Amino acid sequence: MWPFERSRFVLRVGRDWLDLWSQASTGLAPAGEPIRLEPSNPDILAQAVTLLLKRALVEGRGNVRLVDVVVESACLPVLSLDLGNTLPDQEQVLALLRHRVAQTYGNVLIGDGGWEVIAESWIGAGRGVGYALAPSTRLALLTGAAASHCKVNSVQPAFAWGRARFGRQVPRKGWWLWCEQDRTLVAFIDHGTVCSLSAGAPRLIEQGVSATDLVSLEAARHGHGTESISAVVAGWTCKELGGAARAQTDEPLTFLAAAAPEVNAGRPTTSSAIGA
Length: 276
Description:
The chain is built from seven helices and 14 strands. By secondary structure, it is an alpha/beta fold. A hairpin with a 4-residue loop joins strand 10 (about 175-180) and strand 11. Helix 1 runs parallel beside helix 3. The two termini are about 35 Å apart. The relative contact order is 0.17.
């Protein structure tokens, strides 16, 4: 499904707000004003999806009916998997991931009608990455899109979507910092495999937080060297990548934004507008 076709919307779901984008020649362009969300409220999420898509269609965004949904880790958890020195098959990896989800999120139902899990793992890598999607979140997305007469083409973890979107710009060996609405995910990649992951580092736009600091912390924690290893900071807009972080370091960093240059989403409207 890469690259995105022009006829599709891209809907981003984060902890704090929901925003809609359309594909432009230079990157993603906002399709309407974002809507502020209430965390962990699937009813509000479904209403927000419907409202945002209906607004975009009314405003003449064309006959766009297909939607690729990109869900950030606050709403679709990302878990680092330690596979040890064995060579587990896919079923064993998924069993480990289900166990981790149950440990982390309580006595949840895994299986029919429960959380859906998918994993990225490679034989012999020793580590992998897993994703878990709550049934209430999936239902809210599908329901909201259907109410606006749109169809969900895909539901993707933002962490995986970002690496797929930027393709060869992702380092084969180096640091990958993925910026989300409420956090930064810091990963060390070797031969295309995520070897370590911090899924809850501070946002780079917070005062006093720099990309170099986050890399140094994770390098010390996981035993990775930082000398002569590239670091890529990626996200949706230039603003969300953290201009302050760029100014705080002399290290060579690459900054990648999915949105068109100098494009930022508008201010989120309050959830009180939903259902009006």
